[in-house]
Design a protein that fits this description.
Number of strands of chain B: 13
Order of helices and strands of chain A: HHHHHHHHHHHH
Order of helices and strands of chain B: EEEHEHEHHHEHEHEEHEHEEHEH
Distance between the termini of chain B: 33 Å
Number of helices of chain A: 12
Largest sheet of chain B: 6 strands, mixed
Structural class of chain A: mainly alpha
Structural class of chain B: alpha/beta
Largest interface: A-B, 23 and 31 residues
Mean pLDDT of chain B: 89
CATH superfamily of the largest domain in chain B: P-loop containing nucleotide triphosphate hydrolases
Shape of chain B: globular
Number of strands of chain A: 0
CATH topology of the largest domain in chain B: Rossmann fold
Mean pLDDT of chain A: 87
Number of domains of chain A: 1
Oligomer: heterodimer
Chain lengths: 274, 312
């Protein structure tokens, strides 16, 4: 198990990717992204009594708050049965008896699913960019590109968590429960907990050290990445005021996302038993 | 990892196990198994559920590391540095495996051929071999249970494996398919392929395996050919003798002079429990009755009888 070969990884990845293309998963998710984005772009200001396209920055800001719910959910649902599904149908032993290491199997699964998810994201939001082309200037395009890239990273981070879940859970039903719980925790509960901590410590806990805690949640990393790329949008978020400039560097945040992709996978490989 | 075994593995064996143990906490799933299976043998592994068959299988396939003991398959350890080369020599059909519904038969085989490093050109011929050539382009979700099982078997045969591990391979097969399956195994055996097979259908195995092991609570309780096990277990042969009611008395009279024979009356005549060594004597004793013996049937103890005798 000391060395890695590419063929087994690519074989597994190709099968996973083809599966999602064939059952139209990629197409369906891309359409969901496109339709939701357009609805947000045109009706996002309805609460303020405005209907119609406002600005690309407002659109991105609205998209960020949509994507932060949607992508983690989709990624978790995509990946939670990657391994436990094989286990349940009895094919895991068969795969592991072949000339393939556990790490190769994990990486193959992850890469195939990651490609499917990334393709949906890029196509779905790319289509929106094409449709909104006449509203886009170079600057807007740059920010929109950043948004798409960070959305892909967000998906990859939660997909990595999903694969970890699929390794840890012994049954598919339990894995699906864990996936939903993970979504709930990172997307809904985590920020509330931090806020609670902030309030109960009477603000003493505020400042830089508090902001670093945000890095423990890939959804917050995604938020920081996008908030800092848009001057206008910062004001929309209360969080922006507590995030120190040191965390505003997109490269640093990209690195944190990369860690969120790599660490759960490494943990999954460590815990992977036949 | 594996500790030093009490005796070294026998050379030239397809499979060689020495002092193999697997403990899960206080559960001794496999508890000291020594086993040598020569190349080209069809070997049956039987036991109750929980006797340790699956654990033993998994260790021989390198899926589980033994708590202690050593395992060589085709002369090499299945784990460790050369695991890829070792595993290319193996074919495996797990019990009740569900293959991928979205793939068609040919794609399924290509997927496994790629992983195994077997030539893709083998795949159509392999489908043909298991009688699925007509269904190669159909998605597996439309396959019947028997067809899925045959596809699983085809997958195990990819890449000319030297050792085949088949866990309940005839599950869901109809009688004709079972016959074809064993014919294929015989053909492979002639090419020197070794086959390890488990089945709950003991009647099916007893005619088809060269040797078998009965596993009880993680230990090999009996090992040998069906014939050898019969000799060793000493279970009586059952002889059914069809006689007219008025002839039974005479028959009972002569049979009482043969030691160990226990006769009992049945509606059609007599049924004798006869120790193996007195079989010929009992038959000789019946000879003077001549044509009054209307019919006679000998029943060797079945594998099932021996299995329950040994594992009880």
């Amino acid at each position: 198990m000391l060395f890695m070969e590419l063929t087994p990884i690519l074989t597994v990845a190709a099968k996973e990717f083809r599966d999602r293309m064939r059952n139209r998963w990629v197409l369906a998710v891309a359409l969901v992204f496109t339709v939701f984005s357009l609805v947000i772009a045109y009706f996002g200001g309805a609460q303020q009594g405005q209907v119609g396209f406002r600005s690309i920055e407002f659109t991105i800001a609205s998209l960020v708050s949509l994507v932060i719910y949607l992508i983690p959910l989709i990624a978790l649902l995509l990946g939670f049965d990657a391994i436990v599904g094989e286990r349940e149908r009895g094919s895991l032993d068969l795969l592991l008896a072949l000339p393939i290491t556990r790490l190769e199997l994990l990486l193959g699964k992850y890469l195939g699913l990651a490609l499917a998810l990334s393709l949906s994201t890029v196509v779905g939001f790319g289509l929106v960019a094409v449709l909104l082309w006449r509203h886009m200037n170079a600057n807007a395009l740059f920010h929109y590109g950043g948004f798409m890239l960070s959305s892909v990273l967000l998906g990859l981070a939660f997909l990595s968590l999903a694969v970890l879940i699929s390794v840890l859970a012994r049954e598919r039903t339990r894995a699906s429960g864990l996936a939903i719980a993970t979504w709930f925790f990172f997307v809904l509960v985590f920020d509330l907990l931090l806020l609670g901590l902030l309030v109960t410590t009477g603000g003493q806990f505020a400042g830089d050290s508090f902001a670093w805690l945000l890095l423990l949640n890939p959804a917050d990393v995604f938020r920081i990445l996008n908030v800092f790329s848009l001057e206008d949008v910062r004001t929309l978020y209360g969080l922006a005021s507590v995030v120190p400039q040191s965390l505003g560097n997109p490269l640093t945040m990209g690195g944190v996302m990369a860690a969120w992709i790599a660490l759960p996978l490494a943990l999954a490989n460590w815990r992977f038993k036949p | 990892m594996a500790s030093i075994s009490p005796a070294s593995n026998a050379p030239g064996m397809a499979i060689s196990l020495r002092g193999v143990r697997k403990h899960f906490g206080s559960l001794h799933a496999v508890d000291g198994v020594d086993l040598d299976i020569p190349q080209g043998e069809i070997f049956g592994l039987i036991g109750h559920n929980g006797a340790g068959k699956s654990t033993l299988f998994k260790m021989m396939l390198g899926l589980l590391a033994p708590t202690s003991g050593s395992i060589l398959v085709a002369g090499t350890p299945v784990g460790g540095r050369n695991f890829r080369a070792a595993r290319r020599q193996l074919g495996y059909l797990p019990e009740n495996v569900v293959l991928y519904d979205n793939l068609d038969g040919l794609e399924t085989l290509r997927f496994f051929a790629r992983l195994k490093g077997a030539p893709l050109a083998e795949c159509p011929a392999m489908l043909e071999k298991v009688g699925l050539a007509h269904a190669g382009k159909r998605p597996v979700r439309e396959y019947s249970k028997g067809m899925r099982q045959r596809l699983g078997f085809a997958q195990a045969l990819l890449g000319n494996p030297r050792v085949l591990f088949l866990d309940e391979p005839t599950n869901g097969l109809d009688p004709q398919a079972i016959r074809d399956f064993y014919a294929t195994l015989r053909g492979l055996q002639q090419q020197g392929v070794t086959v390890i097979i488990t089945s709950h259908i003991l009647a099916e195995l007893q005619e088809r395996v060269d040797r078998l092991a009965i596993l009880v609570s993680g230990k090999v309780e009996a090992l040998g050919s069906v014939h050898e096990l019969r000799e060793r277990t000493g279970l009586p042969i059952i002889v059914e003798v069809d006689l007219a009611p008025q002839d039974c008395h005479d028959a009972l009279h002569v049979l009482h002079q043969v030691t160990g024979v226990k006769p009992a009356q049945t509606p059609s005549g007599l049924q004798l429990q006869c120790p193996r060594e007195h079989k010929m004597a009992a038959l000789a004793a019946l000879t003077p009755l001549g044509a009054r013996v209307q019919d006679l049937r000998l029943h060797e103890p079945s594998l099932e009888d021996m299995f329950f005798g040994i594992s009880a």
